Structures are given as C-alpha cells and as structure tokens.
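re the bet — no i am not wrong, look at it urself. input seq straight from the record:
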Amino acid sequence: MMLDTEFQYFKDHQDELVAKYNGKFIAIVGTKVIGAFDTELEAYLTMKKDHEVGTFLIQHCLPGTLSYTQTFHSRVVFT
C-alpha cells in the first residue's frame, strides 16, 4: 500500500521524532524526514512543489496513537 513505508517509519521512530519536531507537521519520503512545518497546509503546498502528490506523507508529530493520521489526496472526483 502507498505510504506504508513512511507511516511505519513514523511509528517506529515516533519518540525520537517527537523529541525533535513536537507539534510540527513533518513530511516523510521513504525513511527520511525532509521537512518540518507549522501547518499541514504549509507542508502540503511546499512538498507538492518538488514531489508528486501521493509520494510523501505529512504527519502531525505528536506523542501517542491519537496523532496517527493518514490523509490521501486523489484527483478522482465522485459525482
């Protein structure tokens, strides 16, 4: 499944990521954090400049499982 690697990386390293980026929205590609942002929108707009949508994960970096989010963006429109 898409972004499984990125989400698993976040879960496996959550404690150390929270220690470094607590409260930020981090952008992960593969197993690397490539940006930390104050808002999800800022993260998305910045990331889509250089990366195709669907190739990066934006994760709110907070402790605990309640912070786990998965947002998928699609060009598909349902009518």
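see?? The first strand starts at residue 25 and ends at 29. told u. also The chain has one domain: 4-63. so pay up
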